[in-house]
Write a structure and sequence with these properties.
The chain is mostly helical and 495 residues long. The protein has 2 domains: 366 residues, no CATH class; 95 residues. It is built from 20 helices and 7 strands. A 5-stranded mixed β-sheet has the order 4-3-5-7-6. A two-stranded antiparallel ribbon has the order 1-2.
Length: 495
């Protein structure tokens, strides 16, 4: 194999492309079209849709009402994506996919800054083939996007601590973006940075003018949503966002057994294959490096451990909550593999091996793109198929003025996706058949959304009621017609 030109811009582009091309293919191929998950994708996607409907960018709405659960960062990105791609699955997912790709790029350059050009492509490749990370880059969720800004903030902090303090301005901007994405958990890069500065004897930087300016940016822009919502809604906002969501739901009393606090370690050990052995060995070596004063090791350990420890103390635990750890894990794993190889093979052999590995990765990425897009390969599971099938019927009845109610389901278990795909929610949700029929009788036209398995609990339908749509999972029962005229069955399957 012919040698590629060294130390040129074109060769650097080739190295970057080769290291992340497989991940780019896996993230973007056949993106959208399979639906979005009811939790949490459709919840955020619907809020983004209502940004356009209400024209309100600071106060996010859900089902026409102000919603205080989430800061608006990802919702803004999705709303802007809708402007380009339309209000659809692809538009909802695209920001997460884009920032997933950008995180792979950032890991390449951060690894290069920390450990040199030999480790950089391997770090990018590891993250681009971490399928847990790829999976959630294909979801309309916050956490992969958050990973980008956490990584960007720490890369800027590393650069600022070692040289030009003006990097703290970028650091503050990235921290602000993290807060606007994930509320108080967005302050993780600030916490990690402070720990790193203290542990490496750089306490004076905490009083440096550029660090203080970056902190002002982080607080000013990051907390701007808090201030706006508090000034507009007062205790209604703080009661939901801080008291209920963060204090009660996040750090409330935990009835889980003691071993529940190790769930995140279990998640990593389950999801990080095939790179888990490299990560484990890398962490052991990293600990030794940190004890010998290696500042790179201190930063990576502070990055990974602070997120895992703090999140493990929370009552609410989901595997994707520690997504910002995975960029650090990619760098640690790449460093471990590179160190192992370098200690066993001559430099010339390593150089040839690296070139051939990059070429193989590039060819594999191109072939993967051809295969995945040429054959009906589904990279995402089909989501909310039942909701998408009944949504046109719900839209027809809703636009015709029908009352739309629900029967025996948790409000958000159906309505997140139903709102996104039909523009209407089934509310209120009733548990008693007599109460349900009484409410529907009082309306000129009414539609009930229910799980198909619950249809039998209604007994025999009263006169004037009929099943107008049914899937394996959901059914619609109507009284009156969508247009106020004669009744008709929209789909023929009965529960």
């Amino acid at each position: 194999m012919a040698s590629l030109p060294r130390r040129t811009a074109s060769y650097e582009v080739f190295r970057v492309f080769s290291s992340i091309c497989i991940g780019a293919v896996l993230v973007f191929s056949n993106l959208g079209g399979d639906g979005i998950a009811n939790y949490d994708d459709a919840f955020y996607a619907q809020k983004a849709k209502e940004v356009w409907q209400t024209g309100s960018w600071m106060t996010v709405h859900y089902a026409g009402r102000p919603a205080f659960e989430n800061p608006p960062g990802y919702i803004w990105l999705a709303a802007l994506s809708y402007k380009v791609f339309g209000t659809n699955d692809f538009g909802a997912i695209f920001p997460s996919a884009l920032f997933g790709l950008l995180t792979m790029l950032l890991v390449y350059f951060f690894a290069k800054s920390l450990y040199g050009a030999g480790t950089a492509p391997l770090a990018g490749f590891i993250l681009s083939t971490t399928f847990f990370f790829i999976k959630y880059a294909r979801h309309a969720m916050i956490d992969v996007t958050l990973s980008f800004f956490v990584t960007l903030a720490l890369m800027a902090a590393w650069s600022a601590a070692r040289g030009d303090r003006r990097w703290f301005l970028l650091w503050g901007t990235a921290v602000a973006a993290s807060v606007l994405l994930k509320s108080v958990l967005g302050f993780f890069p600030a916490l990690i940075t402070v720990l790193f500065l203290l542990m490496t004897g750089r306490r004076r930087i905490l009083f440096d003018a550029w660090f203080l300016a970056g902190s002002a940016i982080a607080l000013g822009f990051g907390c701007s949503w808090y201030l706006h919502e508090y000034l507009t809604f007062g205790d209604a906002f703080t009661g939901v966002h801080f008291n209920w969501l963060i204090v009660q739901r996040g750090f409330g009393s935990d009835t889980a057994p003691w071993y529940g606090h190790f769930d995140y370690l279990t998640d990593i050990m389950t999801t990080y294959w095939p790179w888990l052995p490299a990560l484990g060995w890398g962490l052991i070596r990293l600990w030794g490096d940190a004890r010998r004063g290696d500042e790179r090791a201190v930063l990576l350990l502070a990055w990974a451990s602070s997120i895992v420890v703090v999140m493990s103390l929370m009552n609410m635990r989901s595997s994707w909550y520690i997504m910002p750890v995975y960029p650090a894990a990619a760098i640690v794993s790449a460093r471990a593999i590179r160190r192992w190889l370098t200690g066993r093979f001559p430099a010339a052999f390593m150089e040839t091996l690296g070139q051939r590995a990059l070429s193989a990765a590039a060819v594999t990425g191109v072939l993967t793109a051809v295969v995945v897009n040429a054959v009906p390969v589904r990279l995402s599971s089909e989501r909310e198929k039942d909701v998408r099938e009944i949504a046109p019927v719900v839209t027809e009845y809703g636009r015709g003025g029908a009352m739309i109610v629900g029967y025996r389901f948790d409000y958000h278990s159906v309505n997140n996706a139903l709102l996104f795909y039909s523009d209407f929610a089934a509310e209120p949700v009733y548990d008693d058949p007599d109460e349900l029929f009484g409410v529907m009788d009082s309306a000129g036209s009414a539609l009930c959304v229910l799980y198909t398995r619950e249809a039998g609990s209604l007994g025999r339908l009263p006169p004037g009621y009929r099943v107008v749509a049914a899937t394996d999972g959901l059914s619609l029962i109507a009284r009156g017609a969508a247009d106020g005229g004669a009744g008709r069955t929209v789909t023929g399957r009965s529960p």
